[in-house]
Specification:
Helix content: 25-40%
Number of strands: 4
Oligomer: single chain
CATH superfamily: ACT domain
Order of helices and strands: EHEEHEH
CATH class: Alpha Beta
Number of domains: 1
Distance between the termini: 25 Å
CATH architecture: 2-Layer Sandwich
Structural class: alpha+beta
Shape: globular
Largest sheet: 4 strands, antiparallel
Number of helices: 3
Length: 90
C-alpha cells in the first residue's frame, strides 16, 4: 500500500468535498481515512489515501489537486505518509 496524506484548508462552501472525492475516484485513488473540522466558515480536512492504483507521478497528483483547490478556493497539499510522519516527529 502506498499511503499519502492530503490536507485541505479554505473557506467552506458546497461542493468542496465532492470535487476532491471526484478527483480521487477519477484517478483510482482510494480514501482510507478522512477527518474534517469546520470552524465558523472555514474547513480543515485531512485525508489518508492509498495511491497504489494511481498511474501518474506524485508531481502530477500535486498539480491535479492544486487545480481542484484553485477551482474550489482552497489550498490542497499532498505528501507521502513517511515524509509527513518524519516532519511531525520533531
Amino acid at each position: 500500500m502506498n499511503r499519502t496524506v492530503v490536507t485541505l484548508v479554505g473557506k467552506d462552501h458546497v461542493g468542496i468535498i465532492a470535487a476532491v472525492c471526484n478527483f480521487f475516484a477519477e484517478n483510482n485513488i482510494n480514501i482510507l481515512d478522512i477527518k474534517q473540522t469546520t470552524v465558523q466558515e472555514y474547513i480543515n480536512m485531512i485525508l489518508v489515501v492509498d495511491t497504489s492504483g494511481y498511474t501518474g507521478s506524485s508531481d502530477e497528483m500535486a498539480a491535479g489537486l492544486n487545480a481542484v483547490g484553485e477551482r474550489v478556493g482552497c489550498v490542497i497539499k499532498a505528501m507521502h505518509e513517511e515524509i509527513f510522519d518524519m516532519m511531525h516527529r520533531i
